[in-house]
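input
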Amino acid sequence: MTDGATEMLLCTSIPPRFGGEDEARQLSRAGLTIADAIASFEAASFRVVSVNRQGEAAGIRGFPTVEIREVPPGGLFPNKYGPNFGQIFEQFSDDPGAIVNADIYMVKSDIASVLATRPGTVLIARRLDVATAATGVVGTYNRGIDGIFFSGGALAELAADPDVGAFQMGAPYWDILLPTVASLHHSVEFVAAPFLLHEVHPARWNSADYKMLRERAVNVMVAHARRYQATRPRAAAFLAGLEAFLGGPFEPLTERKIKDSAVFMNLWLAKIEQSPSRLVAVDYNDPTINRFISQLFSHTAEALSIANWLDAREDDGQQSLFGKVHRFVKLILRTRRAQKKVERVRKVFPS
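output
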């Protein structure tokens, strides 16, 4: 790790432990932990700051190198979820840095150096879900991102929009809204998996919050794009593409249009993802990724027959024949879903 003078700020939000179900849930997790995540951030030359609501610092223990900064309740759910992004953006001023969920392990890379030397850079990454107890990879989480990395001032337009800033860490849809908004102003690029690893666990949000935040994100996205459509070609392209996708104007807004607009935002990001960044050198010799690397590259679903797949795993005496077939079928379906998504992106955004 570099010395403190050259370390770059990474903001996260470590959940406090005040006993009860939340603490029991955190302590019962197997595999990758928040402590592992913090260590990985620091190994990548980031100085870690946890932004938390007032009163939460007392419940955050065991992270002596992390600075805890408390902020007043705010955002769309002032007494629920984490800090809002307006409060997080304030921590950076015009400096480069990163915003990453606290339970994400970052594989070793040179990403901090890239941000320090390349103005106008915005990099995003999806997480790869892993299950240590099952010694396997669950798959890439494709509903949003878990980390956004930026050079100095590259998120200025997001920080200037209070409606974007009202979204919160720990709540749904910030992970789709923020990268989509950023893409209107800069050439956002994905760092391909495996770069961020995440130990799977149950979600803490509910369907009512998800539905409300989806509608809010769609409205905020369209309003932001309209504000910049005269000066940002990508904003104008987003609005034109959305209208074509909806088959007509955005208003009057209906439940169907909300859902379809959310789909379009995902497809917009999927289009960007088709050309992953080559700026960041990820160290695949990282010892943590090596726990799962054989699972990642041992097979490609469409290239194998069921017989070959089973033969390759005959030494797996702990898994029944039914279990092996079930796992293979899930792999096939996941690959086919990904292929369909690629086909849909090409249809919506023809070259």
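quick obs: The chain has a mean pLDDT of 83.
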